[in-house]
Amino acid sequence: MNKLVVMVEGETEQTFVRDQLSGHLALFGVTAWPILPGRGGRLQGVRKWAGARADIIRSLNSGNFVTTMFDFYGVPEDWPGRSDTGSLPWSSRAEFVETKIAEDIGVAMGNRFNPDRFVPYLQLHEFEALAFSNIESLASVTAPLGTISSEKLVKSFTEILDEAGTPEAINDSYDTCPSRRISKLVAGYRKRVHGPIVTRRIGLSAIREKCKHFAGWLEKLESIGTAS
């Protein structure tokens, strides 16, 4: 089985990869595990690019396949291409930065870089966007954590989704990113604990159907099983 290192942003993504994604990829001949790279003294979030680039190159030098799972919302402005995405349609922002990341890593590694072994991925716009792939599942997990009934949460979550059009389009500002949309309605929501519970309840098949950028990433990871 081919080995895949998944560099993740935090404990939420770490749990998702360990408890859900890795089992799915094993069916395709891929052994995947998450790592939390060094954060340079930061308690949470994504490192500045110089540190993140060093982490990526270190993992690639191990000889394994490498991918990333960072929230587009949280990527610092000094990452390749990040500051140039403001005028782009939301649907192309992550892919634009992913391309720039691969180009930068290629320049840094020179002829040691094998682009077939690196799959950069940024989650639009945040991990919790995946939770909006099935509103009923999201409401069933979060209703016991607050004072609003499941039925009313379904209505509120549906309004958020309808306004955006698709889960991955839910806004990326401080006040309107997916996790804060949820926590404003459910005071007891804790993303590190409840986010992965929601995605497990929804299932990867439903998530990939609703989240096209995520679906493209998952397809690339599945293909690693037959790569040489």
UniProtKB/TrEMBL annotation:
It holds the Pfam family DUF4276. It comes from the Bacteria. InterPro entries: DUF4276. This is DUF4276 domain-containing protein. It comes from Novipirellula aureliae.
